[in-house]
């Protein structure tokens, strides 16, 4: 974990509240996809209709990410990269700059393609000396 002086302000580039909301929603969406994949073989027409509510959750998450500004999206992508070990906490700024330069066409699609996104975002925060527990 990167050590951070309590007096030192770290500019994550996105609010912890937004990261918490995205991490929680990503966990719920990815968990429902996993459990849905196991149950799909036995579903009838009625079961397929029930999945529409879960898709709305994913659509809402995609919309939330799409509504973030470019800097916030880049920060979120960089945080995911730090969380999965592509970069260290000390390299966060470099990761954020690269995320901006890559200009990922659909940040929500990219992020939701990362397995265990919620956990990875939380690990990224931990690497930066931050915590979702800092949000209430």
Kindly describe this structure.
The chain has one domain (16-134). It has helices at residues 16-39, 45-67, 70-83, 92-102, 107-112, 117-127. It is mainly alpha-helical and 136 residues long. The radius of gyration is 16 Å and the shape is globular. The model is unreliable at 38-55 (pLDDT under 50).
Provide a quick synopsis of the model:
The protein is mainly alpha-helical and 136 residues long. The protein has helices at residues 16-39, 45-67, 70-83, 92-102, 107-112, 117-127. Helix 3 packs across helix 6 (117-127).
User: What shape does the CA trace take?
Assistant: globular
Strand content: under 5%
How many beta-strand elements? 0
Contiguous uncertain segments of 5+ residues: 38-55
Number of domains: 1
Helix and strand element order: HHHHHH
In which range does the helix fraction lie? 55-70%
| Rg estimate, integer Å | 16 Å
Average predicted confidence as pLDDT:
83
Structural class: mainly alpha
Largest sheet: none
Distance between the termini: 23 Å
By DSSP (H or I, 4+ residues per run), the number of helices equals 6
């Amino acid at each position: 974990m990167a050590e951070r002086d309590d007096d030192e302000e770290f500019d994550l580039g996105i609010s912890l509240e937004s990261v918490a909301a995205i991490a929680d929603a990503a966990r719920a969406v990815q968990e429902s996809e996993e459990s849905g994949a196991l149950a799909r073989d036995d579903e009838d027409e009625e079961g397929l209709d029930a999945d529409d509510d879960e898709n709305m959750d994913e659509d809402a998450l995609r919309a939330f990410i799409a509504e973030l500004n470019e800097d916030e999206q880049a920060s979120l992508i960089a945080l995911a990269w730090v969380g999965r070990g592509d970069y260290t906490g000390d390299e966060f700024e470099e990761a954020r700059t690269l995320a901006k330069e890559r200009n990922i066409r659909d940040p929500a699609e990219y992020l939701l393609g990362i397995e265990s996104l919620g956990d990875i975002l939380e690990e990224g925060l931990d690497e930066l000396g931050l915590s979702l527990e800092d949000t209430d």
